[in-house]
Amino acid sequence: MQVQTRWVTIAGLALILALGFGGWGLYRVFSPDPGDPRVVLENSQRAARGQQTQIDQLQQRVSTLTRSDQISREANRDLQSTLAERDEEVAALRADVAFYERLVGSTAQRRGLAVHALRLQPQNDTAWHFTTTLTQNLNRGAVSTGELSLTIEGTRAGKLQKLAWGELRQQPGATGVPYSFKYFQQVEGDVFLPADFTPVRVSVRLAPKSGAAIEQSFTWADAIRDIAPATATE
Description:
By secondary structure, this protein is α+β, with helices and mostly antiparallel strands. It contains four helices and ten strands. The strands form two sheets. Strands 3, 4, 5, 7, 8 and 10 form a six-stranded antiparallel sheet that branches.
């Protein structure tokens, strides 16, 4: 009985070994050779796909970072622009406060009717828009009323020329721009210059309803700045 059991065991082991060697043989027969060009090509394609996936991921990351940097730069530019605008507003408000203090403050110097500032801005090749700031604090509570007009000196065809108010308005006999105020007022209007005329100096003439006329001059360079200080020629 023991002999029979031993032979059964040996036969089982032999069968297992036979199946193992058979399987190995089949694997060797049907499995591709690592040196087979098809295997090499498939491996290369698999590696290429993996590299392309990495490239796509890196490109996506670069694109995301680039967009994030662009957004940050735009936000920074907007912030800087806003801060610059706020600085300009603060400077303008401080200038206004200083102006009002000089005009109506308790320590303000008393002055009669005057042209505080003149500003000229181009509208096209020949048209200019002017803004004048008129002030007076000598007679507090009194109303200053009258008309404002301009004359502009310059050169034309190599000769000195002075353009009167009617020529500047292109209306012979044109009346001045009216003004009426207690402490200050901005008076605006438009003038027209000949195309071949080179301006040098602007004179502002105030003709009050009572009292003598007042004239103040500005260089053209000062007048085309944001705010030009006056040079009195009363």
